[in-house]
Design brief:
Elements (H helix, E strand, L loop, with lengths): L6 E8 L10 E7 L6 E5 L14 E3 L19 E3 L5 H12 L7 E3 L1 H13 L10 E3 L6 E4 L2 E7 L8 E9 L2 E8 L16 H8 L6 E5 L13 H14 L4 E5 L5 H14 L2 E4 L5 H12 L3 H6 L10 H4 E3 L3 H10 L5 E5 L13 H6 L29 E5 L5 H17 L3 E4 L16 H14 L3 H6 L5 E5 L3 H12 L4 E3 L6 E5 L2 E5 L8 E9 L7 E9 L4 E14 L5 H20 L7 E8 L6 E6 H8 L4 H4 L15
Parallel strand pairs: 3-5, 5-6, 6-7, 11-12, 12-19, 13-16, 13-17, 14-15, 14-16, 17-18, 19-20, 25-26
Antiparallel strand pairs: 1-2, 1-21, 2-3, 4-23, 8-9, 9-10, 10-11, 21-22, 23-24, 24-25, 26-27
Helix pairs in contact: 4-5, 15-16
Length: about 650
């Protein structure tokens, strides 16, 4: 921000995309004469490219905001605020930490903190690059500077304890901007955890000056008739289960969407079925539920209709599949009418080599089985253990997003029906819906608007026209952003349609929009992940610079993760992992990648110090494999080329 442009700047880094959802991230910068410029970032998410693209995620180029081995941050961010734990809001954090970006302190809820740390642990992040994370709660004041403060508030979403944020900036001791960021939200009640409460929000906003409202556009066209309560979702699910009492049940649930998982758990309890969690993305959610029961958490007890002090064996209701042996044990113990299996695949994810459980089940006709019904070979199609037939019920509650997965979702349904299975889809009427959207409907958007305008500290000035207030759509593609904008325009509100790289400047009561880089000229950091050996988290992460059509411009960095043991008797296992890492690096070299861009990380298990991660260059790892002295060859690995400025 130039010297004469004192005030507050909001930059749309990601999330307001051309035609996809994800990579949500906003930068707020406040600059006051005679004081240090302060910056905070709300969310740092990843975007999922189409399945025909070999990349697994796209993240914005954030090199100028965070110190990294390749260059110093030219516009350093002082703090990160995270609304919730979905990948499109935290995904980039993991990839940046993997690439040795030094992230500032993160402020978020307890539930989201647990998931961020868990994800970093699984991704072999070096300890020095795991950021400090502070748990915050509704109404708490976080002072970044005397002229920049942040206040979290509770909202409802499909995960637990999501947050919205109010940002207050001042210039010369007077209010400059009051920014409301809803995050992903709706106004309904949640099964457990903190959710939106109208009275609580009115009290929260009553002493706060508001100038701009940034709100979720994802489900803006949905009306209230398409919204159901948690109890209604359970009721409808139980009704379907009773229609087909002899059938085994499969229900795909989005990773970390614990509010939706709760529908399945309660429905299973009411119908006497035992749940199997066969989705890695939901294991931690279940562990949190189990801990809640152990600690007599009133919200979790209420979820399962258990009175305090009443005995309840959680493990008799829910089994967790940590490996294929757990699945085999479950299938052998429970008959089809007793099964309730939670899988991955709510969005019909079918990327080659990393297909979701649901997609693999749907493709079982593409493979062959032996006389015992076991899958022949491992192949790319067919699930190695689950099969479906006319005695199988699929509860596909998650609505597809036409521009993202509409076509492949229809193909998935067709394949499941071709197996003779019964498929139940989320309908339009209240009796045909099995979960609600995690995002605000049209009516809820209008209610949130009204609650804010009528109860904020400057409500009378807004009503009289003395204060301007602007509504800005976030979290959507262009069509979704425009749909929400039209809702506010119909109320006579001032709106701003902002897209990625656009900027809003707020100073002395004036708001100015500055258009950024056209979509056609924007670039992204693309991440491609390859399974290395199938053991633990052995894998390869490739970071490339790509254009908006996912065409590679340059290779930036590659990380080869391996897992070995500190146990001297595990020499054979260690040799296997090291050899796999070297083979992967050699293959990358054959594809034209510079060896100076490759780093190998070895996560050692069983050491007295606990799990640690060591970093090596390709040359060093070869020396270890060849039994050369580790100390003789331990040199600092070559510094890879920097992440070149991809957005300007």
């Amino acid at each position: 921000m130039a010297k004469e442009e004192y005030g507050t700047k909001v930059e749309f880094i990601g999330g307001n995309n051309e035609y996809r959802i994800g990579a949500n991230s906003l930068l707020i910068e406040h600059h006051e004469k005679g004081k240090q410029t302060k910056r905070i970032m709300i969310d740092t998410g990843a975007m999922f490219p189409p399945d025909w693209v070999h990349y697994d995620a796209l993240i914005p180029d954030l090199a100028k905001y965070f110190e990294n081995p390749y260059e110093k941050a030219s516009e350093p961010v002082d703090a990160l605020f995270v609304t919730h734990c979905h990948e499109d809001h935290i995904g980039a954090l993991i990839y940046l930490a993997a690439a040795k970006y030094k992230l500032p302190k993160i402020y978020t809820s307890d539930y989201t903190k647990a998931f961020i740390l868990s994800q970093m642990d699984k991704s072999n992040i070096l300890q020095e690059y795991i950021p400090e994370i502070e748990t915050v709660h509704h109404g708490q004041e976080i002072e970044i500077a005397d002229n920049l403060k942040v206040f979290p508030f509770n909202v409802s979403h499909s995960t637990k304890n999501p947050l919205g944020f109010y940002i207050q900036t001042k210039t010369g001791g007077k209010e400059n901007a009051g920014l409301i960021f809803s995050g992903d939200y709706h106004l309904g009640k949640v099964a457990f955890g903190k959710g939106f409460d109208a009275e609580e929000y009115q009290a929260f906003i009553s002493d706060k000056f508001v100038s701009h409202i940034f709100t979720d556009a994802t489900s803006a066209t949905m009306d209230s008739g398409q919204i159901i309560t948690f109890d209604k979702a359970v009721e409808n699910t139980v009704r379907e289960l009773k229609k087909y009492p002899s059938m085994q049940v499969f229900s795909p649930v989005i990773a970390r969407s614990v509010q939706n998982l709760a529908i399945d758990l309660k429905a299973a309890k009411q119908t006497g079925r035992t749940v199997l969690i066969a989705s890695a993305g939901l294991r931690q959610s279940v562990h949190i539920l189990r801990a809640g029961l152990k600690n007599n958490d009133s919200e979790v007890l209420k979820l399962f209709d258990i009175k305090e002090g009443e005995e309840f064996d959680f493990d008799s209701l829910v089994k967790i599949a940590e490996n294929s042996a757990d699945i085999e044990k479950y299938l052998n113990k429970y008959e089809p009418h007793e099964r309730y299996i939670i899988t991955s695949g709510a969005f019909a994810e079918d990327k080659a080599g990393r297909k979701s459980g649901l997609v693999l089940i749907s493709e079982q006709n593409k493979v062959s089985y032996d006389a015992k019904g076991k899958l022949k070979g491992k192949g790319m199609s067919g699930h190695p253990q689950f099969t479906a037939d006319s005695n199988t019920l699929f509860l596909l509650r998650q609505r597809p997003i036409e521009s993202i997965n509409g076509e492949k979702h229809r193909a998935l349904v067709g394949r499941l029906q071709a197996l003779g299975s019964t498929v139940v889809l989320n309908g339009d009427s209240a009796d045909e819906k099995y979960q609600r959207s995690g995002h605000a409907s049209r009516d809820e958007s209008e209610t949130f608007r009204r609650l804010t305008l009528e109860n904020c500290a400057n409500a009378e000035d807004i009503k009289s026209g003395r204060d301007d207030i602007y509504f800005v759509s976030i979290h959507g593609d262009v069509d979704q952003l425009k749909a929400l904008e039209e809702i506010f325009q119909a109320k006579g509100d001032k709106t701003l349609l902002c897209l990625n790289t656009d900027t809003i400047q707020i100073s002395e009561g004036k708001t100015t929009k500055i258009e950024g880089i056209p979509f056609d000229n924007q670039t992204w950091i693309a991440v491609e992940k390859h399974a290395l050996s199938g053991h633990g988290t052995d894998d390869v992460f490739i970071f490339d610079l790509v254009d908006k059509n996912f065409v590679k411009i340059d290779n930036l960095y590659t990380i080869v993760n391996i897992n070995t043991s500190a146990n001297p008797h595990a020499k054979k296992e260690n040799t296997y992992h090291l050899s796999k890492a070297i083979e992967a690096a050699q293959k990358l070299e054959e594809e034209g990648m510079s060896m100076s861009n490759i780093e190998i990380r070895n996560r050692i298990h069983g050491d007295r110090r606990g799990r640690i991660t060591e970093s090596y260059s390709y040359t060093q790892l070869k020396s270890i494999r060849d039994n050369k002295s580790k100390s003789k060859n331990k040199k600092k690995f070559a510094r890879p080329r920097k992440f070149r400025g991809g957005r300007d």
